[in-house]
Amino acid sequence: MVESLAGNVPLLLLVAGLVLMVLEAVSPGAHLIVIGVALVGAGLLGVLFSPFANVLVLALLTLLIGAAAAYVYREFDFYGGKGTARTTDSDSLAGVTGYVTETVTTRSGEVKLEEGGFAPYYSARTTDGRIEEGSEIIVIDPGGGNVLTVESLDAIGEDEIDRALARDQAETEAAAEADAASVADTETDDEPADDAAVDPNDTEPETETETER
Predict the structure, then answer these.
(1) Which spans does this entry mark as compositional bias, Acidic residues (predicted)?
(2) Residue 138's domain is classified under what CATH number?
(3) Could you tell me if residue 70 is inside a domain?
């Protein structure tokens, strides 16, 4: 089969283009779609029309179709974000939301992302516990686009609420302690002095000497 492909350039281009497109679908972010479309287009024309089977003609067709594919890739927004890449880079998956299609545990699981490119289904793991099928998730660590680390949106929401409640409770306790300290200081200032002034007329008479007796 390899020899037949080597002797048939249009078929070789067609197969190579299809392989690149599959790779782009499996691992989005490599931007192989333009090259894949160019090779598939040139190879298909070469297979269907024998005059185009010449190597030079195929090379020219590849360049022309590639330029057209690049133009469409840039000008028409198929995946959102005018003027941005149309496939999803693995690093950009951080923070993307989706839902669980297969229960996610620390060892297995699958999710579908809302912005996952051509293939929105990804293998996923959780750092702790399990996330049931149908639960909404958010990507914590893209993991290079191969295995995602995800967390349940419900769990994250509960953590935020708990932190907010703890913060409010701490502020309330601090305010109560400040009020108590202020009241204690006020009571201390209102107390009378313990030591009264000594009247000089109240001094006791001196003890009589033996001569006066």
Answers:
(1) 186-213
(2) 2.40.50.140
(3) yes
Tell me the percentage of the chain whose pLDDT exceeds 70: 65
173 CB burial (10 A radius; 0-12, 13-18, 19+): exposed
Higher pLDDT, 100 or 142: 100
Q: Which of 75, 106, 130 is the C-terminal boundary of a domain?
A: 75
**Number of domains making up the chain:** 2
Task: Select from 4, 9, 78, 79 the least CA-distant residue to 45.
Answer: 9
Q: Which stretches does DSSP call E strand in the chain?
A: 97-102, 110-113, 121-125, 136-141, 147-152
If phi > 0 it is left, if psi is from -120 to 50 it is alpha, else beta; for residue 67 that is alpha
Cα torsion through 82, 35, 69, 5, rounded to 10? -150
> Do 96 and 39 share a domain, yes or no?
no
Q: pLDDT digit string (tens) for 44-86? A: 888 888 888 888 888 898 999 988 888 887 766 554 444 434 3
Q: Domain for residue 82, yes or no?
A: no
Same-domain pairing of 56 and 137 = no
Q: What is the mean pLDDT of residues 102-131?
A: 85
CA distance 118 to 115: 9
- Among 2, 112, 3, 87, smallest CA distance to 37 is for 87
Has residue 154 got a pLDDT over 90?
A: no
208 in any annotated domain: no
- Residue reference for tokens 């099928």: 133
